[in-house]
Amino acid sequence: MHEYASLNGVLSRSYNADFPVSATGLLYGKGVFTSIAVIEGEPFLWSKHWKRLRANSAAISLDLSNIDEGLILQELRATIVANRVTNGRSRITLIEMSPGAVWPGEPAGGTARFILTGERRTQTEPLSLTISNFGLNSTSPLAGVKSCNYLENHLALEEAGKRGFDEAVRLNERDEVTGGCMANVFWSKDGKLYTPSLKTGCLAGTTRAHFLENFECEEVEAGVEELVSADSVFLTSAGLGIKPASVLDGKALANVHSSILAFSSF
């Protein structure tokens, strides 16, 4: 994480953020976030990130009446400049500051906006994958929402790491492939590309959307056997770009096509 962060438009040291202890966002994780690649000093795929922030906020009834796209983008760019970021990443968090009924407190001003930047994620290449022991409930109201309640994803990633893997693919309650802990998943088989459909509960990733706009790829509800029998597998995210996997639970995977790897702007 870089030195400066923006809280409601005010730049300060990143460790100086001040939140009311009764904030619903702090106590229960009521908030949403997005991670954005910064390329040559500019946020990459900005419009897609803003669209998802709005949609995810609506899904959890987070009030954005005092926050608009121009305001957020201005504050994001100011944070990028303050930290002298040329190529890296940023994170925007929108979080509920008002207290809830269970732990009432003084009103604190609705939704706060918190922006930070950092270096790109370092990750081995290619990745080693496993099937996660942590399932995903596609019927959850948080399925497909990039909310601040992201502990399941972190626990799944930590558990995979303890078993010696870089990432893990999570399955839903129907044993359908949904995605990685921190990324979307794609695979190729017999010359065709596939990725889980949003019906599985997977996240509508911005890099995923960008990829689907540029490659012929089928969105499917597929069982784990389809992934296990795939020729190649790769992950996409704003933090990683496009990263191929070398193995899936010990099975060696073929190289991802060079046109796909060349497409990555990260």
Structure description:
The chain is α+β, with helices and mostly antiparallel strands and 266 residues long. It has helices at 24-28, 46-59, 69-82, 151-162, 206-212, 224-228, 258-263, and strands at residues 4-7, 10-13, 31-39, 42-43, 88-96, 111-118, 127-131, 167-171, 177-180, 184-189, 192-196, 218-220, 232-237, 241-248, 251-252. The strands form two sheets. Strands 7, 8, 9, 10, 11, 12, 13, 14 and 15 form a nine-stranded mixed β-sheet that branches. The chain has a six-stranded antiparallel β-sheet with strand order 2-1-6-5-3-4. The longest helix is centred in the first third of the chain and has 14 residues, at 46-59. The two termini are 18 Å apart.
